[in-house]
Design brief:
With about 170 residues, this protein is of the alpha+beta class. About 55% of the residues lie in helices and about 15% in strands. Strands 1, 2, 3 and 4 form a four-stranded antiparallel β-sheet that branches. A hairpin with a 7-residue loop joins β2 and β3.
Length: about 170
């Protein structure tokens, strides 16, 4: 008597078939990714700059810096420094702008500039601003913050015409 037992090759064949399908799908997705990368870089050439062009650009930039500086004197700041004991700072800030266009922009954004400087001062303690290095760091931070929100203008330097801490 021969019992007809089902063979177990049918599930194995299905597993092999699914394995081939998944491998084919992976290769297709990989190929599509390679094609997308390749097609997005077609026609892109590296920019070529000659030494002559670079010298011309540097010369133009240096000429723009040689103009008369445009100074904008802000109203004095009276604010409290961070830390204990509470100390008050009175400071007069003069901004040296790169050009007249930047001067006009900083006048139009005076409230934003003053707020930025006040936030910087409020985060400083007396120990941060008492030394020369601290004041230079404060100048650099003011220049960075102001240049961050100015669109056309560039703050070239910051001068303190008054700096009193009580």
């Amino acid at each position: 008597m021969a019992d007809a037992q089902p063979t177990q090759s049918a599930p194995r064949n299905t597993q092999k078939l699914l394995g081939f399908i998944f491998a084919g799908l992976n290769i297709a997705v990989l190929g599509a990714g390679v094609y997308l990368v390749y097609s997005s870089t077609l026609g892109v050439s590296t920019p070529v700059t000659t030494e002559k062009d670079a010298k011309i650009e540097v010369k133009k930039f240096e000429e723009s810096l040689r103009g008369d500086p445009v100074l904008y004197t802000m109203e004095p700041f009276n604010t409290v420094l961070d830390g204990v004991p509470r100390r008050m700072v009175r400071m007069q800030v003069n901004l040296e702008m790169l050009d007249q266009e930047g001067f006009e922009e900083v006048i139009n954004k005076n409230a934003q500039a003053r707020d930025s400087i006040n936030r910087i001062l409020n985060s400083k303690s007396f120990g941060d601003v008492e030394s020369v290095q601290g004041k230079l760091g404060l100048k650099n931070q003011i220049i960075g913050d102001l240049n961050a929100f100015l669109d056309k203008g560039v703050v070239k330097n910051v001068y303190f015409s008054e700096f009193v801490v009580q």
